[in-house]
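Q: I'm writing up a methods section and want to include an example of the input and output format. Could you take the sequence below and give the corresponding predicted C-alpha cells, formatted cleanly so I can copy it straight into the document?
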Amino acid sequence: MTQLITKTNPMKKWLFFSTLIVLGVLVLSCEKDDDDDNSRKALLTGETWIVTSKPITPAVSLMGTTISDISILDSEEVRNYTYKYNEDGTMIQYDSSNQEIFQTTWSFNTDETILTHNPGIVFNYPIVGDISLTQATIVSITADNMVMSIPSTYDGVNYTVTLNFEAK
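A: Here is the clean output for your methods example:
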C-alpha cells in the first residue's frame, strides 16, 4: 500500500489566510454606516409623529381638579393632529383627515438637542395660557418615540410641559 503524503506549503497557507483577512476587512468596511441613520435629524424626519401625552410640572388646578397632563384639555380633533418633519426644513401639521392645517420651518442647533420652529406652533390652555412650540429641548428620540421639553411661565409660576410623541 502506498501512502500519499502531502506537505502543505507554508507560503500557500500564509497567502490563503492573508486573502481571507483582506476579504473580511473589505466586507466590513463596505457595510452601511449606521451613524448617519441614527442622527436625530434622520430619526425626526423618518416618521410622522402624534402627541400621546403632555405632562405638566408642577400640576395645575382647574376648578378644583388637579391636572398633571394637559392633553386632557385638548379636543379629540387636536389629539389626533400629526406632525411631519421633512428633510428640507419644513414641518407640516395635519388634522385627523390628513389635511394640512399648519406649516412652519424647523431647525436643530449644532448638537441636535434644541428644535426650533419658525413660526412656532401655539397651544392655548386655561391656567397656563399660550404654550409656544417655538423652541423645545429634545429629551430623547428613537425611531418609535420622541420626548420634547418646553419651559413656560404663567402668572409667575415656572412650568415644564413635556410632549411625548409616538411614530404613527
